[in-house]
Structures are given as C-alpha cells and as structure tokens.
Request: fold
Amino acid sequence: MKVCYEDENVNIWKHYQEKKNLELAYQMCKEVNASETEYIAGLYADDLFNKGKYNEAVDVYSESNKSFEEIFLKLVQID
Reply:
C-alpha cells in the first residue's frame, strides 16, 4: 500500500497519528510542524502515561498544551 500526501513533509505526522503510532507522529511533527506539536505532544504524553512510562510522559508533557494542573492531578493519582 502506498500513501501519498500533497505536502508530505508537513502532513506525514497525521498519517502516523491515524495509525495510532503517536511516537512517530510526535517526532515527525516536531521536525516540520511546530504549530501542531503541542497537540501531538499531549496525545503522545497521555499514551506514555497510560503505559506507565511516567518519567517519559513528564518530559513530553512539557512540550504539550496541557495545563500544569491537569498534569499534576494525573501524577498525584499514581499509586
């Protein structure tokens, strides 16, 4: 299967997001689309958090558009 995008360098992160590969979506977005990076960073950080990778999630949350309060409340609820 071949996937083509009009402006592949800018939009390829969307393909990875649709395929639920948030790590690659985040990496690609950081490289070419700063305006969307905060959004993808939030999704990727949530994914890491849900997998129990809290330290990695905190690093990525720092680049997201999530509020400090939202992140803090998630971290406080960890057993």
User: Anything to note?
Assistant: The radius of gyration is 14 Å.
